[in-house]
Amino acid sequence: MPLPWEALIPFGLLTTMFAAAGTLLNTSKMAQNQGKRPRHNLDAWDDMMMDRDRRLTGHIRGQKSDTTPPPGFETSSKWYTESVE
Amino acid sequence: MTIYHAGDDSQARPYIDPTPLPDSIPKVQEIGTSSAPLKSAAFFIGAYCKDYNEDFMLCKQDAKGDPGACLKEGRKVTRCATDLINKMRENCLETFDKHWQCLELHNQEYYACRKDERALNKCMFEKLGLTKTIPGSPKGQTPIHDVAKPIYTTVQR
């Protein structure tokens, strides 16, 4: 029985392309999240905290545990001045 | 109620509040700790600052929507939380860092970081005498952070 080896060429191409697409997307996502896995299942609180992290560290995924805020942190929140919807 | 909106990142300059607190109100340093360490410390803040937090919430309840009524209590809450985080960093820096870094890698979910959490809980109890208690958890049962083999872990079975 002859092996249909020619069918393996598109199979290999498809596998490579799916893998390339997945790897690229993963690399892009990780690069946007400072090398950490992206957040998921976010609610309004998480969004607010991530915006607070951005005000504290300059990036939404930046983290720091010391209690000294950067200068101007007190007045960098627009939370209080946003209109009520 | 004010609703939170995601910040407008397209703005070139960062936002500065045009109406900061007047100088007549005593200043308190805001907490500069970001979300993951705060989440890691949350139950210890709850244990350590219980009196101040309850004072603030009762004051808010009595204030009937007056935002300026509880500034004094609010400052106490801020100071207490800052104090606790500083103490945690002095006494349990290693376990604390490990736990919040684990949280940050796992979408800030407690269930994924029980091992680091137990190390932190142990250190916090030994050094500062604080225990993690989950409010409203059923009486007489092992709290979820102490269950040896929980059903829901990062590995699906």
Automatic annotation (TrEMBL), chain A:
Residues 74-85 have a biased composition (Polar residues). GO terms for cellular component: mitochondrial inner membrane. It is found in: Mitochondrion inner membrane. It comes from the Eukaryota. The chain crosses the membrane at residues 7-27. Keywords: Electron transport, Membrane, Mitochondrion, Mitochondrion inner membrane, Respiratory chain, Transmembrane, Transmembrane helix, Transport. Residues 56-85 are annotated as: Disordered. InterPro entries: NADH_Ub_cplx-1_asu_su-1. Belongs to the complex I NDUFA1 subunit family. This is NADH dehydrogenase [ubiquinone] 1 alpha subcomplex subunit 1.
Automatic annotation (TrEMBL), chain B:
InterPro entries: NDUFA8. It is found in: Mitochondrion inner membrane. Signal peptide: none annotated. It comes from the Eukaryota. Residues 1-11 have a biased composition (Basic and acidic residues). Residues 1-20 are annotated as: Disordered. Keywords: Disulfide bond, Electron transport, Membrane, Mitochondrion, Mitochondrion inner membrane, Repeat, Respiratory chain, Transport. Its main location: mitochondrion. GO terms for cellular component: mitochondrial inner membrane. One of its GO terms (biological process) is mitochondrial electron transport, NADH to ubiquinone. Accessory subunit of the mitochondrial membrane respiratory chain NADH dehydrogenase (Complex I), that is believed not to be involved in catalysis. Complex I functions in the transfer of electrons from NADH to the respiratory chain. The immediate electron acceptor for the enzyme is believed to be ubiquinone. Belongs to the complex I NDUFA8 subunit family. This is NADH-ubiquinone oxidoreductase. It comes from Coniophora puteana (strain RWD-64-598).
